[in-house]
Amino acid sequence: MGPNSISPNVFPSKSPNLVSNGGHFRANSFVRNYCAGKNGEAGSGEWTEDIEYLDESGSVIYSGKGIRSVEPGVDDHVMIGGLKKPILNASAVAKIVEVVKRWKWGPELETQLDKLQFVPNMTHVVQALKIINESDALLSLFKWAKRQTWYEPNDECYVMLFDGLNQSRDFDGIQSLFDEMVCDSIKSATQFSAYNRVLKFLAKAEKLEVSFCCFKKVQDSGCKIDTETYNILMKLFLNKGLPYKAFEIYESMEAAHCSLDGSTYELMIPSLAKSGRLDAAIKLFQEMKERNFRPSLGVFSSLVDSMGKAGRLETSMKIYMEMQGLGLRPSAIMYVSLIESYTKAGKLDAALRLWDEMKIAGFRPNFGLYTLIIESHAKSGKLDIAMSIFRDMEKAGFLPTPSTYSSLLEMHAASGQVDAAMKLYNSMTNAGLRPGLSTYTALLTLLAHKKLVDVAAKILLEMKAMGFSVDVSASDVLMVYIKDGSVDLSLRWLRFMSSSGIRTNNFIIRQLFESCMKNGLYESAKPLLETYVNSAAKVDLILYTSILAYLVRCQEEQNERQLMAILSATRHKAHAFMCGLFTGPEQRKQPVLSFVREFFQGIDYELEEGAAKYFVNVLLNYLVLMGQINRARCVWKVAYENKLFPKAIVFDQHIAWSLDVRNLSVGAALVAVVHTLHRFRKRMLYYGVIPRRIKLVTGPTLRIVVAQMLSSVESPFEVSKVVLRAPGDSVMEWFKKPIVQQFLLNEIPSRADILMHRLNILFPTSAPEIRSLSPPKPLISAKAV
């Protein structure tokens, strides 16, 4: 406003000495109020003085009757002189703007607004808000207006307020004002478009919790949200890694029957596909095409990738072909995804076709894809293709990973290709790569099976130099030689291990010891046994008995001495028992029967029942061969007393008595027959009980041996395929013969060489009776030698 103009929006004071200053009036010594003054007469509605308007120099620019307003709130007009004029909207708005800009906020502003000489309305407030730029002032005017009786909720008003708060980044203010808008909407049943504006502002500012909370409030209030707002909200939560929230918003969008646009499809189809909701993604994809929206490359890529990873290869390929039909060129990422999916599904031929198609399209396979293709073909046994791609990988400038080398090397090793495996190993180490434990293990196993001891030793030392613990790997190689029956190679490898400071465990030492015994290498076996015993390993009864079985079958004096030395090296209590058994009562200081009972009482039958049976069988073989019949009968008697063979003797009242020796060794069977017949004789003579028949169940193996023994004393037993049987009366008469009494009391009339011959023919293995009857108990925990 210029200095020579009169403000039509100002009510002048009734002082002739006021000076205008930019629309404000100033006295020479004080500032007067804008309100027009009256004379002192009560009830007068006119001014009694003229009012002069001066410019800044003091010259009079206008003189006339003053402007007098009516009482506030009574009428919306002013008196200009004697004329009654209505207040213009522009004047009212300008007045409101002036007051707000002057006082900004607080009680003083509200006081000044309450003193306005007219009654504003929402139109005035909205127009004033458009002019005022300060958010605090906007809110102050709005809050004052809300308390007036003429206030009405206005959408445009809220829009301007939210715009101002967003410009000042006052999101707390936005949230507070949003809550007020919700209350207004509920009270007045009005829907505001400002809802969408608020949600967009909060979403763009990445206010996750606040935006979702406001979204739920809008939803609960029943107001309509537009498609763009839905899209912005869903995009926010997807970008923040909260797809389940985005899907919840999408489901709300569907429930509200809000129309989806192209952006919605582009946003939701990849998200649904990546989250595993493949059916929903496909449904939306079909809907997108039905509505004539053209899917982008991103939509196709996400569907192809997700379907492939889910194993739905046909659907994935169908979408891939559809994309090509639309003229879209597959990306390198899509090729990689397809090839990976088909490779992992084991469809290597299809993967190779895509591989070739990818290279024709001008894309270069990346490092990971090379690795995947090579390893997959290697593991499937297609080593030629794997090696071809491996060479292409090297030509492309990629350094294969240890995993790639390992898969190729291990598969070549598994197929027995020593040269190829060693070539890969040398290439790997020359490239500075460190083979893994599985790679070394596969290579060493291959070399062991090929009996390349020197090469295996070289590889093992290199493995040790790389920092690996080689004890287990070396023991595995040794075990391969043992299982192959290569005792010489086993002993050679063991010597190499000892010289290199590599230790093995007691289990393998025992296995090698047994192999040496089986092959008659007693000189090599004894040091192994001593090593086994000195390492605190316990020689169990089974191992001792197996050595005794070799002694039973031995026919060379030199070998007998070596076997006796091996038995002594076991330090087992059974050896002390054996030595005591062959001494006289003076040295034992107790009868042989008591001595035998004492030994068998020290056996834990819960743990060693099978081993005790094995020991009795072999021991009785040995005693019979040595002609120690009485000692053998004592051993059998005590074994039967301890119920090692509980079902051997059966007394079926007066009908039948039987002895079953099918599970016994030759010597044990002969001793059992003699001892049991002697028992039957005593029972028949002393008690006068005679059964109808007596049976000796021998089985086909022992039938001949037992029959030959009884035929020497003219026994009445008839020989069938598996049983020797005779009537009780006939046996009773047979028992009365002196030769039979002598036979049953003293010794078996059979030469040791005949018995030995039978042992060799009937039982060609070293210890047949044990291995088939009762498996040996687990070995004690292995300890390093």
Distinctive features:
alpha+beta, three-stranded antiparallel sheet, single chain, five-stranded mixed sheet, disordered N terminus, 39 helices, elongated, Ribosomal Protein S8, Chain: A, domain 1, disordered C terminus, about 775 residues, 12 strands, Smr_dom
Indicate the topology.
Elements lengths: L18 E3 L2 E3 L23 E5 L5 E6 L1 E3 L7 E4 L2 E4 L2 H15 L3 H8 L7 H10 L3 H12 L8 H13 L3 H18 L5 H11 L3 H14 L5 H13 L3 H13 L6 H13 L3 H13 L6 H13 L3 H13 L6 H13 L3 H13 L6 H13 L3 H13 L6 H13 L3 H13 L6 H13 L3 H13 L5 H13 L3 H13 L6 H13 L3 H13 L6 H13 L3 H13 L3 H9 L3 H4 L3 H10 L3 H21 L3 H13 L7 E4 L3 E5 L5 H22 L5 E5 L1 H13 L6 E2 L3 E5 H8 L2 H8 L6 H11 L5 H6 L12
Parallel strand pairs: 9-10
Antiparallel strand pairs: 1-2, 3-4, 5-6, 6-7, 8-9, 10-12, 11-12
Helix pairs in contact: 1-2, 1-3, 3-5, 4-5, 5-6, 5-7, 6-8, 7-8, 7-9, 9-10, 9-11, 11-12, 11-13, 12-13, 13-14, 13-15, 15-16, 15-17, 17-18, 17-19, 19-20, 19-21, 21-22, 21-23, 23-24, 23-25, 25-26, 26-28, 27-28, 27-32, 29-31, 31-33, 32-33, 32-34, 33-34, 34-35, 34-37
Commentary on this structure:
InterPro entries: PPR_rpt (IPR002885), PROP1-like_PPR_dom (IPR033443), Smr_dom (IPR002625), TPR-like_helical_dom_sf (IPR011990). Belongs to the PPR family. P subfamily. This is Smr domain-containing protein. Residues 659-735 form the Smr domain. This protein has 785 residues and is an alpha+beta fold. It has a domain at 647-767: Ribosomal Protein S8, Chain: A, domain 1 (2-Layer Sandwich). The protein has 39 helices and twelve strands. It has a five-stranded mixed sheet with strand order 8-9-10-12-11. A hairpin with a 3-residue loop joins β11 (718-719) and β12 (723-727). α9 runs parallel beside α11, α21 runs antiparallel to α22 and α34 packs across α35. The relative contact order is 0.03.
